[in-house]
Amino acid sequence: MWRDHLTQIIVFAVLFLGVSALGFFAARWRRTGSLDHLDEWGLGGRRFGTWITWFLLGGDIYTAYTFVAVPALLFAAGATGFYAVPYTVIMYPLVMIALVRLWSVSYKHGLVTPADFVRKRFQSRTLALLVAITGIVATMPYIALQLVGIEAALKTMGLVGASGFTRHLPILIAFAILAAYTYSSGLRAPALISFVKDALIYLVIIVAVIYLPIKLGGWGHIFNAAAAKFEATPAPGDGILLNANNQLNYVTLALGSALALFLYPHTATGVLASRDRGVIKRNMAALPAYSLALGLIALLGYGAIAAHVTPVLKDNNTVVPALFDGLFPQWFAGVAFAAIGIGALVPAAIMSIAAANLFTRNIYVEYFDKGASPAREAKVSKIVSLVVKFGALLFVVAVSPQFSIDLQLIGGVIILQTLPSVGVGLYTRWFHRTALISGWVAGMAAGLWMLYQIPNPATNHLHFGGSAIALTKLGLDSPKTLYVGFLAVAVNLIVATLVTLALRAAKVRDGGDGTSPEDYQTDRSDTTPDKKDPALV
């Protein structure tokens, strides 16, 4: 009952409403122009410095879902859940140069989205449209999963029941507040809130990793308890160490997830809001500090095993909130729940803004209103950001949380299909634009077919039950599994390469390149954005 958690609820509500007030105040924070312009509303004026960008990107990449789902995966499957740690480590050096190049060309030409870049680079409306649709579709379940994080905290406090209208009422209220201040303040709202969010998360983690071993008899006992649990289960892929059955999936999932995270439109939004190239370089060097925090967060899953935590309403996403509820004082548990809730607000706001910008620039303006004014663009993005949040809300209201998690894994496979046009396109114009479209179709078809073959016995889903496909499904006599996104993007690249070679041999004319080599080295001091570029309106 919620009355048993009254102190937690009060602490949670005070902190949650406090940061919401910050979100509305952000409309006046560091403003350099009218919010009736996409550069100001959707990119914060492109003037965020090193510290603001560090907190913004940290809040964008390390979400509430990370806080609850990574430990939940360790709680249920063991060492496999640690894949999130190496992928966030290898991502930064892997994509640092790519993101710097994306910032430069975007600043030179006033680009707002990755699809804007594809439109400019390959002079193809169709390819840009596919990239925009892919980004929106892949982002929607990611936003929904921020709701899953909030819902896990609310369930533990007794504010979300098993059924009935009131089950989702607290989440509806939370996202109504989020929608209101995102509409009024744009990207400045999550940027300002991210300071509070990160401070709370670091506080909670530092206290937890010191207090839990004392309470549970030391880390040795915690790891022994986890090992004993997995040894008693019949599942071949769990355990506190990787084994021959899951090592290949672990490696491909880590690498594929690193590439996917860089391709998500909300990551690009945080990067394009930076003041200059130096800000991005310093952030790529400093952001791995979050990976240390992520590793500590992951260990909470083993702590929940040692503490004999029972998930609330049979939802594994509640293991971390339930751990804090059972072992910590109520007031501190309330702080932890607020960290989870606020941790959902920052990425959800950035993701909805990124998806709205994609729709506005690459669908609405490109196909319905080529002469749209900057004020019109900003107005459409504001409205679409509300629609995107409502759509994400439907994911959680209409389907089970576990199925939403499956959708997020599918989202990673989907967004990886933009790697040839966005990621590779930042370095070379060799691929023919028609070949990139063909590769996208082939990779998407292969990825969705493989995902359709994956069941999830834990949730009784016969299809789309995860992102690891057994090699036996591909006709190979092996018990190993492999990340679907890795195979799908390989198909994409192979088809794009073969079609390009065939079209070049047939001397089929390609579109021109709307960029120059110098564009990829541009810094703020070198030029000003080309707002009148006809390719962008």
Give a quick precis of the structure.
Helix content is 68%, strand content 1%. With 537 residues, the protein is mostly helical.
Give me the secondary-structure category: mainly alpha
Mean pLDDT: 87
How many strand elements?
A: 2
- Radius of gyration, CA atoms, in whole angstroms: 23 Å
- What is the approximate shape? globular
User: What strand line-up does the widest sheet have?
Assistant: 1-2
Tell me the number of helical segments per DSSP (H or I, 4 or more residues long). Answer: 22
Q: State which percent range the strand residues make up.
A: under 5%
Question: What's the end-to-end separation, in Å?
Answer: 55 Å
Q: Tell me about the biggest sheet?
A: 2 strands, antiparallel
Low-confidence stretches: 530-537
Proportion of helical residues: 55-70%
Written account of the structure:
This protein has helices spanning 6-25, 38-43, 50-61, 64-77, 84-109, 114-122, 125-156, 169-185, 188-216, 219-231, 247-263, 265-272, 277-286, 288-298, 300-306, 319-327, 330-367, 374-398, 401-415, 419-423, 433-452, 484-505, and strands at residues 468-470, 481-483. It is an all-alpha fold and 537 residues long. The protein has a two-stranded antiparallel ribbon. Helix 7 (125-156) packs across helix 18 and helix 19 packs parallel to helix 22 (484-505). It starts with 5 loop residues before the first helix and ends in a 32-residue tail after the last helix. Mean pLDDT is 87; it is low at 530-537.
